[in-house]
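User: S-adenosylmethionine decarboxylase proenzyme, Massilia horti:
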Amino acid sequence: MTDCRHRPAGLHLLADLHGVAPALLSDAARIDALLREAAQAAGARILHSHFHHFGAGCGVTGVLLLAESHISIHTWPEDGFAAADIFMCGSAQPERALELIEQALQPASRMVKTIERGRL
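Assistant: Predicted structure for S-adenosylmethionine decarboxylase proenzyme:
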């Protein structure tokens, strides 16, 4: 029998981070490590990750698959912009993941949309 401990109710954070130093947005290994640290800080369990760098001067796209759902990021160093998508259910705390990401990237401005998922 499958263990289905997590209920669908959770928070989905969509974060637009502007004014980020380009050097912080172009290193796939560094961004992978950052998202892993963010997932752990949120109390999430990492299942798999995949990150892709688009070449010199270009950005990164990546995703962490979590038992609680996912964290993804897309970066545009040429524009100093990162878009992060954090959805976690169960007892995981996506706000903590976003706090850690913001501390590392130090955006000049941010816009975050919070969506409650799976609640009636």
